[in-house]
Amino acid sequence: MSAVLATPDLAAYCLETAQRVKHAAADLAVCTGAQKNGWLRASAVALRKATKEIIAANELDLAAAPGFGLTEAAIDRLRLNPKRVEEIAVGLEEVAALPDPIGEVIESTIRPNGLQILKTRVPLGVVFFIYESRPNVTADAAAICLKSGNGVILRGGKEAAHSSRAIVDVLKSCANDFGLPADALHLVETADRTAVGHFLGLPQYIDVAIPRGGESLIRRVTAEAKMPVIKHFDGNCHVYIDQFADVEIAERVVVNSKCHRLGVCNAAESLLVHSAVAAKMLPRIANALMAQGIEIRGDEATQRLTKAKPATEEDYGKEYLGPIISCKVVDSLDEAIEHINRYGSKHTDAIITGNLAAARSFTARVDSSAVMVNASTRFNDGFQFGLGAEIGISTDKFHARGPCGLKELTTYKYVCYGDGQVRE
Amino acid sequence: MSAVLATPDLAAYCLETAQRVKHAAADLAVCTGAQKNGWLRASAVALRKATKEIIAANELDLAAAPGFGLTEAAIDRLRLNPKRVEEIAVGLEEVAALPDPIGEVIESTIRPNGLQILKTRVPLGVVFFIYESRPNVTADAAAICLKSGNGVILRGGKEAAHSSRAIVDVLKSCANDFGLPADALHLVETADRTAVGHFLGLPQYIDVAIPRGGESLIRRVTAEAKMPVIKHFDGNCHVYIDQFADVEIAERVVVNSKCHRLGVCNAAESLLVHSAVAAKMLPRIANALMAQGIEIRGDEATQRLTKAKPATEEDYGKEYLGPIISCKVVDSLDEAIEHINRYGSKHTDAIITGNLAAARSFTARVDSSAVMVNASTRFNDGFQFGLGAEIGISTDKFHARGPCGLKELTTYKYVCYGDGQVRE
């Protein structure tokens, strides 16, 4: 397909694609785990065999990268080599090894009239996945969607177009051998951004949209989508050091939450410290952060105790995604909770405390997808939580909250067995 | 509050209301089951005591009813008497007797690093419930929402305004005694329909909208809501009589599915019969339906075997909510499944069969919230499924599907306990 299509053709292409994936998804929904796992494992083998071709396709992307204005770091993330292709193949095998979520009877009951009610896990249907990321995400997303019995329409960044095409071609080529409908996996090829809008307007064929990338992309998808969206806009995550905190744990968790990776959604962006321990703990923790090159922006109390620059109101609402952290001294646990619920992103927030009542109150009242006690915010992640896979993190409360793995791409239906029951 | 407010005042009222309910909901979320149940039971006692006042308020509604153009049947549904007030009180006690959904650890794991992950059930937050119905729905909805820890904004029909006000006043008056925030329960008093639009534009304070009533109301709410909606538009439910059906069961289930109550979403609106048994079964079942005053609209094969009128294409997509059923003779199970997935509402569909493979294929492939085997479609209902309560039925796949009781008004958060864990 050419990279540029006239609008009517583009609309027709999107409609026809969505219908075809939906139709294939209905067949995929009743395929067995053995079929899906067989396909994933065969795809891993085929990817390894196709390493040369995939790297050749990747070289086309790399050659075009400067023209797209990619930074050196972005080009490095785009680059495939034999080791990275091997990692992609291993990723498919890891998804194959996960339990099949489909068909699980989540709850069941036999009613007094003998009617058996089985609340049964089934796929959502068709996922529209929009991402800006590295070629390995193409393989990961395909594996997670198909393993959970869903058709998927992949809309990756144009920067990785050739690499993604090569990977998807390999995966599709392995579907037939296991009786799987290859049409359930579709890579959108046009670079025309209006295609995204067309797909987002087809709720009758697409059951969920999952955008992953910058906040502007996610806001655009959320505003336009006529189907539900699994998403988070940002991650203004907090660590609160309670008056009953252990200073060693506090320092370790704050430094890890902030510094382990700066540009990720579960990195800490704000530090709150109880006034009763601020003089004792804050200078030490500030030094540890500054030793890692982190700039601190704090309120007056923080400035008195550290070399922090002044924080503005805006700083407390900010996701820096870089070497800056905001800091505030609070007079109570309640003030910390209120601050987090006001300025935070409902993503991940942590308390450092040895006090049971404080831990219970914080975890009950902080309204976030994950609340950590004496642990790094960086643990809010599908792999770290043991889901075995992750297609995104949700800060919404509806359907899926927190890391989304295989189960979060499913729904349920009620299957009821009787022998002639009627309502009296 | 007066029934008419200027637009800026109305917008401010809606915003202020939503903020106040959201704030109260945060407190309600951490109240105990004993508090919530105490409040429900005390409300039941108080309602019984206030029977005279409630009936007096109801008489104001009844007096105004002809002016609203209500039918005799609608006026009868609106009417309260001591028996109906007693039923409302018993309804509150029944919700009090249900298990508290909040705080349940749905799944848990201890990761290899010692981090304990508790996937914990919590309330959604604030429910906006829009309904056109009888005064008892006001009490039921309040009970379900508050028991599940959610604040609720009730927007009932103007026809029941005085009755609903009297009931809500009683419920609110009992909240303080149990330390519950009375502000978590709010009845919208203005008759101005634009208030609904204002509330639907406040996703930061309202977590879910639940419309219950006619399809046009539900379509309007779904189109305008900036927050998720739990809903079904309609219920074009099918009964399919397989070639391996028992004719006694087939007749009983078809008649019950169609005739038990005509105007409800889980009533059958379409009958499919396998051609191998049509000659034997269809005349008998058609006679049984016609004996109940049901008009049959069928394809040519149906017309040959019964006194059916001709069915148009439109008939197969129709929810009659009345004494009509469409009928079609199909040549295979697959044709029946395809027909249902094409024309149905994804609500409730039934197969009558003694054949295991047919039952398994039908339940796996029919893409509806509930699929019945040898049982009436009328069982797709929160009470019939044993949920103990119901605020609506969802035909969507996201979050909640099928009957929605207490659990369907909850979400989860991850609560993680560690002792200093950080990511390596």
Automatic annotation (TrEMBL), chains A, B:
Q: Which organism is it from?
A: Anatilimnocola aggregata
Gene Ontology terms: cellular component: cytoplasm
Indicate what this protein is called per its UniProt record. Gamma-glutamyl phosphate reductase
**Root EC class:** oxidoreductase
Described purpose of this protein according to its UniProt entry: Catalyzes the NADPH-dependent reduction of L-glutamate 5-phosphate into L-glutamate 5-semialdehyde and phosphate. The product spontaneously undergoes cyclization to form 1-pyrroline-5-carboxylate.
The catalysed reaction is: L-glutamate 5-semialdehyde + phosphate + NADP(+) = L-glutamyl 5-phosphate + NADPH + H(+)
Which HAMAP family does the record match to this protein? ProA (MF_00412)
Key word Cytoplasm present: yes
Instruction: State the EC number(s).
Output: 1.2.1.41
